[in-house]
Structure formats: structure tokens, C-alpha cells
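Dear support,

Our group has been running a series of protein-ligand predictions, and this particular one with iron/sulfur cluster is the one our PI (initials K.S.) wants archived with full inputs and outputs. We had some confusion internally about which version of the output was final, so please treat the block below as the authoritative record. The input we submitted was:
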Amino acid sequence: MTHPRVSIYEADYDRLDRAVEQALDAYAPPIEGRFVLVKPNILGAMAPARAVNTHPSLVRAVVRALERRRAGRIIVGDNSGMRAYGSGDHAARVAGILEAAGPHFVNLAASPLPVQVNSPFARELVFSREVLQADVLVSLPKMKTHVATAVTGAIKNSFGHLVGGEKTRLHREAPGADDFARAVVDVFQVRPPDLVILDAVEAMEGQGPSGGRPRTVGRVLASASAVALDAVMVAMMGLVPRKVPMLRIAEERGLGPADVDGIELDGPFAVLPRFKVPAIGMDLGTLASRIAAYLLVTRPTVRRSKCVRCGSCEKACPVGAIRMTDAGPVIDPVRCILCFCCHEMCRYEAMNLSRRMRILQGRRR
Ligand code: SF4
Ligand code: SF4
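Confirmed final output from the archive:
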């Protein structure tokens, strides 16, 4: 039995062309004359130095490489945020991706297409039409932690195949960590990428996907298997891949290995010392999960000193648990389903999570 292969390249943002060429040589299906969708992670309107979005240098290098290979049509786009039908262009501009993509940028929210899905959480979901039309899908995720799913990588990057409001709806239908992980894999299965190139030059640790801290890793990872690539990324973070629910579920469905022993590794693999991950969102075992739920699961709270009353958290909340007042957002604890979308979408680090959770970050074995 052949194992899926994952390559790890040393890289920095000024020298990405070589790594991208090697990745395409090793893993890309035929490109010439074909319709290629490049899908970076553009979570929101945050500058590249925050390490929230895929770095524009990687987008630029991939677009150049696809042009050299004479792709018939190249488009670059994402569905940013939770209800971001109108803000995709703005997020891409601030992220530097609008400029990096040049004439290839499209707002994926502009062409919705309802699709029947095999999911206990929805019979139909609205995808971006281009995701299903492209001959070749190149996913460019960011190596990040995530307070709801433990990590963001290639599997989670597929959640952006849904147009903005659909992500909110699915969050509402699948509020628990395990159910939400199933829902993410349900979306991923509809159109897995053909090639993944992970931006791990500047990763994010701590309270990702938007409130953590940049961590220099200096790597680009590539694979034709999104699941195998995520497993390697998770192992580099010092985690056991099968304890991340998205990976465990993907493996159970035969979508790829959640164990580095089942992966052919090519390049300098190393576990990053004391990489900070949120304990929340992890599968810690039955008893440990209960204790973790008691100790760790907390409610988001607003840091008034940082809040600029932009209202993004109110728009992101899938259950309407946030009401804007003159003093800022007020959260209804009874309605709140602990999805942390408000934390994810706050650009000002004003939506806080518990101090206890931060203390426990990194104790995951
Ligand atoms: S908590 Fe954040 S997202 Fe919500 S209003 Fe304040 S600054 Fe905006
Ligand atoms: S208040 Fe925040 S954590 Fe609670 S349901 Fe709304 S978005 Fe999710």
C-alpha cells in the first residue's frame, strides 16, 4: 500500500518561488489549458503581519507558477468572514491578496450555488459556483490554531467554499466541537482540493484563528492529500493528530491518514517546541473531556478598553446572542452556543476568552 506523501520546504516570504515550483512539480495535476481555482484563507481585513490570512507572497508565487504553466483560466478568491457577501474585496485588499492576485481575483460570494449534501446538519448548502466548476483546486491554508476546532489547515480551509451566511447557519446547526468538526468534514468532502500548499512561514499560535500570536516556523508544506498534510502540521504543533476531531473524523471516513506513520515524509520535519494550542476543541478522552469542559469552556467576554463598537461580533453570531448597545456588545449567556465566531471575527482582540484556557494552552498530552 502506498502512503500519501507530504513535502516540507524551508522558505521565507522573499523566496517562495522555488518551494512553489517544487510543490507543483511533485503534486499538481495537469495545469495547461485548465480552469484553476486558488483558494487562500482570507479570514478578514487584517494585515499580513498579523499572520491571520494566507500571506500574499505565497498567493503571488502560486499565481506566477500557474501562469508559467499556461493555465487556461486562473481565479483567486475566498468567502471571507461569516456574513461577508459585501466585504470580501475589502478583506482581500487589507490582506494584500487583492494586489497579489492581480486580474485573477474574484469575490467567490458573488456566484452562489445550492448543493445537496450528505450531512446530518443540512440537506442543502450554498457553495461558491467556482469551487465546483474548477478543473483544479489549489488550497493555500495558513498554519494556525483555532479555538473551536483546535487547528486551521487544509480541511478547515474548505469551510470557505460556503458563501458567508451558510457558514453561520452550519455553526448554528452544529454547535458542539465534535458536531462542528463533522460539519466541516461534510463540507470538505464535497470538493477536496487537488493540491495543498500550506503557509507555515509565519504561523499563528495561541488563540487562533484571529486572536493568537505569530510564530516563525519558516516552512511551506505541500501534498495532494489535505488530510495527510493537516496530520503533519498538527504533529509539528506537538499534538497527536487523531486527537483533533476533524482529523479523526476524516480518517474514519477513509479520506486520509491521521497519523504520521501512515505518511511518507519528505523534508525537514521537526516538532516545534512549546507551540501554544487551545485545549478547547480537542478530543481529550471521555473523562478528560468532561473535566476540560468544566475547567475550560468559558463564555466570551468583551474587553471594553479594546472594543471599537464595530458590530462585527453581532453580525457573526449565528444565534443572535449579541446585542449592540451604546456601551458595546452585550452577550446573552443563555443563547450563546460557544461557537466563538465572535472571537474569530473581532479584529481588535476585544472579544476575550478565559484566562484559565490561556494558562492551559500547551498542556495537551
Ligand atoms: S468586540 Fe470586537 S467585533 Fe465586537 S464590537 Fe467590539 S471591536 Fe467590534
Ligand atoms: S456570543 Fe459568540 S460564542 Fe456565543 S454564540 Fe454568539 S458568536 Fe458564538
